[in-house]
Design goal:
Two copies of one chain form a homodimer. With 550 residues, the first copy, chain A, is an alpha/beta fold. Chain A folds into three domains: 9-210 and 372-456, 4-Layer Sandwich (Metallo-beta-lactamase, Chain A), CATH 3.60.15.10; 215-362, Rossmann fold (3-Layer(aba) Sandwich), CATH 3.40.50.10710; 469-549, Ubiquitin-like (UB roll), CATH 3.10.20. Helix content of chain A is 31%, strand content 26%. Chain A has 15 helices and 28 strands. In chain A, a hairpin with a 2-residue loop joins strand 24 (443-447) and strand 25. The relative contact order of chain A is 0.12.
Amino acid sequence: MVSTKKADELVFLPLGGSGEIGMNFNAYGFGPAHDRKWIIVDCGVLFGREASTPGVDLIMPDIRFLAERRDDVLGIIATHGHEDHIGAIAPLWPMLKCPVYATPFTARLIEGKLEEAGLSSSLRVREVPVGGTMKLGPFSIEFVSITHSILEPNLLAIRTPLGLIAHTGDWKLDPDPVLGEVTDRAAIEKLGDEGVLALVCDSTNALVSGHTGSEGKVRESLEALIGTLKGRIAVTAFASNLARLDSIARAARKHGRRIALVGRSMHKMVEAARDCGYLKDFPPVMDAVEAHDYPAHKLLYLCTGSQGEPRAALARIAEGNHPDVRLAKGDAVIFSSRIIPGNELPIYELHNKLSALGVEVLTEQDHFVHVSGHPARGELEQMYRWTRPRIAIPVHGELRHMAEHARLAKSLQVPQALVPANGQLYRLAPGPAELIDEVPAGRIHMDGRVLVAEGEGLAKSRRALAHAGFIAITLVLDHKGRRAAPPAILTEGMPQPVKDAVRRAVDDTLERNRKAQPDDLMENVRRAARRAASEAWGKKPVTRISMVEV
Amino acid sequence: MVSTKKADELVFLPLGGSGEIGMNFNAYGFGPAHDRKWIIVDCGVLFGREASTPGVDLIMPDIRFLAERRDDVLGIIATHGHEDHIGAIAPLWPMLKCPVYATPFTARLIEGKLEEAGLSSSLRVREVPVGGTMKLGPFSIEFVSITHSILEPNLLAIRTPLGLIAHTGDWKLDPDPVLGEVTDRAAIEKLGDEGVLALVCDSTNALVSGHTGSEGKVRESLEALIGTLKGRIAVTAFASNLARLDSIARAARKHGRRIALVGRSMHKMVEAARDCGYLKDFPPVMDAVEAHDYPAHKLLYLCTGSQGEPRAALARIAEGNHPDVRLAKGDAVIFSSRIIPGNELPIYELHNKLSALGVEVLTEQDHFVHVSGHPARGELEQMYRWTRPRIAIPVHGELRHMAEHARLAKSLQVPQALVPANGQLYRLAPGPAELIDEVPAGRIHMDGRVLVAEGEGLAKSRRALAHAGFIAITLVLDHKGRRAAPPAILTEGMPQPVKDAVRRAVDDTLERNRKAQPDDLMENVRRAARRAASEAWGKKPVTRISMVEV
């Protein structure tokens, strides 16, 4: 089918989350090419890494394509409240200034972030009830309850005049999520009966066979495990996993232990859940100060810091410098969480520091204390059977997960499976799905407090500094280009013998270039310094030179 | 028992490997405190990491305590040829200048490294036959064959007048190692009968229950898997695991495929093994250029780069820029290796790049293609039953592994279990084991080509550069301390608005400090620049200032 400029089209545009687990950002457009209306589903962040993006806290999608069309962007809809789905709303919203929609608990979390960003007077999140529907221009959106590792995860059924899209968000099929709604299986099956054009679906666990376990089973296992421990217990888990916190709290109560919350996000999440009417039967909590007077065997700390974050509660406890919590021989820490890839070394370091205190460390490697929130292959198969889409669109995954997800979909006889990259604009209807354009896409770094395009190379230039340090040379010349004073050489990150070699090379070069033009002189000195470092050290520092005329 | 200065003592001193998996370095001393003779068992490296030690290739133990006594160091004995056991011999040997002993294959690998370091004329490794014995002063050392993931791993039975030490090196109990000797169980049981004072033992897998699998089983599985694949196959494995290479080569031959070796260390290791009389039945190999003419289904590449090393063969193949190897849709890559903790992200990136080429990626997560080379708890229990030591000394582990290993030993009724830290000097006999001293210990970085003590903080200072960049300011003053020219400001790694803010702050400060003394002026300008960056950016760059007088 040939695209005509005037006919309505339904298009799909991922700007984040295709090629990475995180930074989810998908847009759907409807209308003819010259007059398309857009909705955005999720607007999340990735977290920066010291090795690859040093000094960068958050990574966000480059949304300039939509920012340039912001009058046609009808709204941002959040499927659920995890950072990789809502974390970029506050930083990027000023470029879009469109309404934001979410169910109550998710809305509460977004508003907390807007408040921190000083945006709460500009933007109120519009609440959609759990199981509710809303309309945005040509899009009619139904929130279908599903299960995940947070309260109020939603599959979005997005109806358009050209077909129905089922956008799963993050999900698993948990028969016993212990808190919040169960999966609305009937509603999803009805979508299948109605006819699903495209299933846009979580790929995180597409390499994992079988079924992800249930929170209900983790609850039982945690209750048994906590019963076997005698001293103080600290449990660390993702604070947003309220079902897990509830399970831990109930296990504590069952074994005569009071709960103390340690870490800001524990307090924040429990409060947000309560404000939204959840956790009605949650045991009373103390803060860490009140817990001082409690005997060890009557106490359980719920701590932030399961990923080894250096400023979180558990890291400070392990360092022995938390103001209110001390753990020692006879105590135990349960990591009721998985290791997010890339966090292995800081987490193992935390394990080691706790071991050094004599604390027993229990993790999912040796005890059943965690389940994933994403669908393994068995659950993906179930979802495809329910929805029977014409097009499978894997998202929320690295390329390998998406490719495997697409293979799985084809093996289930889905007629078409795409493996979209960020910035690829696909027409989903009319006609078979087709790549019709590539729009600007990429990553934006929150570098300190400044937004910087990844392509500007700031983080990359700092990696070069981390590798081989910096040489800054200032030459002082008179107005005839003659040396007026010795050069100033400032270096950082280099061994003394290398510094000495650089100093000698600069002096020698100045000596040999008495008659050179200033520009040549500068370039010769810069090169000589770099070469001298390289010869003495085997590494080439970043070398900059400036000239001052007196 | 009170230590007397004159009586003979047997002491144990770990300088590496206690608290980390890698950088193994243990010393045993015998004699009265004032006249002790030392032997060193293993002298290995850790590999640097971009996040924690940017620009550092290798990390080695600080051995100054033994270097100061080098006349009393009788020799270095290598248990086996892995980098974390022999990699520091060449860089550290000039500080010790003692003989080095190893079995033939290990000696061959050490000599290769001495040659690279230009040391082969100064030092010849003294070969000890497999199963052989040697004597060094009061120490009599027997090499007992055991199994691991390299040729010729040895348990050392170290006999002294005050007792027998069983030093395991790295090991597992593999009933079918497919290449090299099987574990000399009879010899180990005989040590137990003779009476083992201390078992100094590998802790790597002390958190893993059961038994580590056998190379023989991996061989069967790889043979079956390779038979199912149709296109080109590339297998990546640790080049030092010759048994694995042999299994892969045999599977290839069985399925009518010729082997091509890709990557320098593959060639080196196969050659070393052949020189030592192994791999007699290894199929003929090609290099990658010869393989050009071979049809896809008749070819198997054995590649370096299983850990995602950016310059290794597999990374270059995945980037599409290897000069001789191209993989595409229909081809497959088998990762016959584990992920060394900390390498997750580069390895996943490699998986993704291969997926992008359409190449199928098979790993130990989805297929049985790898077994560990270290003893799980079942094997540790077996070793304790055989040797029945009076003292258990866990080594080769992070603190958590060592602590768990010690708990296991106590549960097996070993009377004493130590958890030594690097630099702790333990008396093992006479009397119960006791910490008697702490000697200087720590880490030395191979930073570029220069050895630098970790404590000097070079890598740490470069991490600060990676976080927030660098500001170098040079003030040009006349001999009365008045400004003679505008300041030179060189920055790196900072966004433009931050640079602008720094420039303004420097100018303002100079303006306001016209009458300040040069030292005060410099300090005021430095602080103002740093503060301005912090206010504009939320991060504090490393800021250095110099002054030139004209």
